[in-house]
Amino acid sequence: MAVDDNSAQAPITPHDAWETLVRRRWLVGGGLFLCWLMVWCGSWLLPSVYRSETVILIEQQKVPEEYVVANVSVDLQQRLEAMRQQILSRTRLERIINQFGLYKEANKTNPDEVIEQMRKDIKTDLVEAPGRRGQLSAFKISYSAPSARLAQQVNAQLTSLFIDQNIEEQSQRAEGTTEFLSSELQSARNHLNEQEDKIKQFKAGNLGSLPSQMETNVHILSGLQERQQSLSQALNRAQEQRLYYESLLTQYRSVSKEQEKGGNSLPAIDEQLSKLKQDLADAQAKYTPDHPDVQRLKRLIARTEKQRDDIQRRLAEGGNDAPAPVPAPTHDPRTMTPILQFESQLKANQQEIADLKRDLAQVEAQIGGYQGRLNNMPIREQQLADLMRDYDQSKANYDSLLKKQMQSQLATNLEKRQQGEQFRIMDAPSLPKKPISPDRLKLSLMGLAGGLLLGLGLAIVVEAFEDKVRTEEEVTRLVKVRILAGVPHLFTPQEESKRKIRRVMEWCLASVMLLVMVAANAYTSLGR
Fold it and tell me: For 376-391, what is the mean pLDDT?
């Protein structure tokens, strides 16, 4: 029965949809199964990819840092990235590719793509310490390969490269730091020696004018000034004594001349004796009784008094007779003793004055020298302070570098003994049991979903292009007439038998399809 176009726009009820689904069940089921089967079989044609993983623990140095401070402070993440770049270099990857025969097909066509593909297959992931955000405690290395055993072997090789590279880099950095500090320490030592030489030369060139010798110079200057005063006083006394000796010598010479002229009369002797007593009084006023001049004057007075007594005695014995003439004086040493003594004393006095003047001039020169030293001490003190400031800075720099160099040497020895920060394999490279790619179970489920959509789509398309009326409701919707009676479809026994057989076959086929899909997905989920 044909219908018009307007009647085809009648709404479809859920019951109609269910009836359509039941009617087109083989189209929906067949499309679902075929689509799934194609996808599932195609997933097994894709190459399997296995990933082997290993975990490397970052061990801190075994000696506490309070005893040995590490001389390498590169951030761990930066260090790992640097090591990764070195390990993933073209030379090392080519060595690994040739060693294990990787990417044989692609290796013949384009070697650059092989290197890039291997870099993509190698992954490194950082692992943070539990409860310490931002602090790394380990890192993972993984490698993907078509074979589980091959993935494990290549990952073991990569792990060994990372550990060896870390040991080499740590040792090189530690030795480089120590060499740098040793070079800087040598420069600092040379500079310090230069400063010490400058100070030595300055002290040698300004010996006696150094600030540390100020107290000594003041003490010496005070002693020189006292000696200057003592020499000045001694010089004054010597000059006074010279005048005194000159006056005495003049007197003795006059007495001697008078004696040579015969001046042995009592008045002359009395006059001479009076003069000698006056000189003795003057000498006693200046000197002590034990002074040689005082003693000499006393002896001279005694001798003169004796001479006067002799004259008086001879006059008393001779009466009014004139005294006998006294013979002319001769150059008897005993008569010349006072004059010679005074002349020798005057010469000694003159020599003493000359010596005192010479000593006084030397002392005054020394005083001038020490006064000059004291006057120049502020300048020398400033110059020495500048030198000492440079020396102290050089010494502090040298001490600091020496301490750092010793610490760096300890850290270097620690690295050489592998007692510093090291990488230790916590989980050995795993042997994967299942491939990570392709995910066949996921692809199978996607094939089921795609097959279901394909079957429903085919059922809808076929139903839309088929013009048939099957139920009374469809007739009522299509033709606005009342149905008075309906004739049901009557099956013959033969038709009923065929119908039952077909349903059994349908159930068997559906069960087989379902079992195949369940078994295949179970096989896939087990990692086969």
Answer: 85
